[in-house]
Amino acid sequence: MKVLLLAAHGGFRDEGAPLGGGAAVCDLLLAEWARTQPFEVQLFRPERLSGRQIVDFDTRAYARFCREFGAASTAFVLGHDPRGVVVVSNDISEGPDFRLLAARGYRVVTLWHVDVVAYIAAMYARGRVSPRTLVRLERVFGWLGPSILNLIFAKQRDCLRHSRAHVLPSPAMKATILDTFPEVAEGKLHVVPWGAPPADEQPLPPRAEARGAFGIPVDATVLLLLSRLSPEKNQQALFSALRGFRPVHVLICGAAAYMQGRSHEALLRSMAASLPNVTAIFAGHVQGERKRQALAAADLYVFPSKHESYGLTLMEAFQAGLPALTLDHAGAAAVMRPEFGAVATERTLRDELARLLRADLPAMGRAAREYALRHPFREAAARVAERVVGSGSE
User: Fold this and answer.
1) What are the extents of the domains in the chain?
2) What is the C-alpha to C-alpha distance for residues 153 and 137, in angstroms, rounded to an integer?
3) Does the domain spanning 2-195+377-393 belong to CATH 3.40.50.2000?
4) Whole-angstrom Cα distance, residue 135 to residue 116?
5) CATH number of 207-373
6) H-run or E-run covering 226
7) Which range is least confidently modeled, 11-20, 339-348, 384-393?
8) 41-65 average pLDDT score
């Protein structure tokens, strides 16, 4: 059996562009399936584009990219005999024409990294309107809105209707989808938490050495942020909580990405400059040894995103022996445990941070590492492979 893996953000791992968790999962699956060889894989990814170009697109350019890649990936699939392949789509809005592929007899498995309708409800409607209500409104008034809404709502609806199976990273995402689209058969939805990415073979450097690499004093309190700089990552919530707080160093590892990334970075730099008790270090996107240094330098990982479907970086922090403080979202609900961190609201973030910094962080870090080791990514990759093979035999 041959798998056609369609990935708008896949295959850019060596470029170091902040493409997000969906790109990371795609590259991890490719590496794991190359090792275990459950089937032959052919990757279809954007041509004549770099990862850096993709994350620098504005809204209009990104919408055009979605349409163009969707059309190109559909044409690529149609060039194969449907009897010999299973299509795995790493995308939804950027994905192929799900309706057409199903009509032509192709079996499609979709990997969900974000529920875009739920994201819109959380980020733009600020939780005042449920995803289900948004879908009902779009069905009645969608023709009045910009075409990008059709790209989001209609594409997600077609994906749910015409894919043979859906792989979801958390139970919370499954519950939201079933509530938003009650016509979807529950048996098509398969929850597979991604687990912890494979650890680097090289150990973390000593803490003093790691802190020296960033110019951080050995005795400082260090908070680590490890995600791209964009509004949904909500790093500003931490800076707001730190106003008037005890002196801390905040190590911000991530680069501006996607539609509002540049303006968001400017906001964060302005907020950091206004806090005399905070030493903010903007380290940019980190990989390899630089990422190991960042993880080794920190006391606590802070994950203040407003909306996360899972959170690979959270598991990566656990694997490095870091406890965590997160906001309440699907990603936190899937993996957080009180023995190695806390889940807060924006209102309680400051108090929870103070409480954790008084706790035995090394002991919590050991518990976090043990949890990550019990949930390796290779197990998730094997479960997805089983689902793909099962879809091919149905």
Assistant:
1) 2-195+377-393, 207-373
2) 11
3) yes
4) 11
5) 3.40.50.2000
6) strand 222-226
7) 11-20
8) 90
User: Which among 14, 182, 21 is positioned nearest to 90, based on CA atoms?
Assistant: 21
Q: Do domains 2-195+377-393 and 207-373 have the same CATH topology?
A: yes
pLDDT band for position 134 (50/70/90)?
A: confident
- Cβ within 8 Å of residue 233, ≥6 positions away: 225, 227, 254, 264, 304, 305
What is the torsional sign of CA 356, 362, 366, 372? Answer: positive
8 A C-beta contact, residue 106 and residue 169? no
Angle ∠(228,321,301) on CA atoms, nearest 5: 35
Q: Can you spell out the DSSP letters for 33-63?
A: HHHH-SSEEEEE--SS--HHHHHT--HHHHH
* Tokens linked to 94: 């950027």
Q: What is the pLDDT of residue 144?
A: 45
Q: What pLDDT is recorded for position 147?
A: 60
Alpha-helical (H) ranges within the chain are: 21-36, 51-55, 59-78, 98-103, 116-123, 131-141, 147-162, 171-180, 207-213, 235-241, 261-273, 288-297, 312-319, 330-335, 349-358, 361-373, 377-393
Q: Which residues pair with 2 in a beta bridge?
A: 40, 85
Q: Which residues contact 136 (CB under 8 A, 6 or more apart)?
A: none
Each residue of 144-169: pLDDT tens digit? Answer: 455 667 778 889 999 999 999 999 99
Q: What type of residue sits at position 17?
A: A
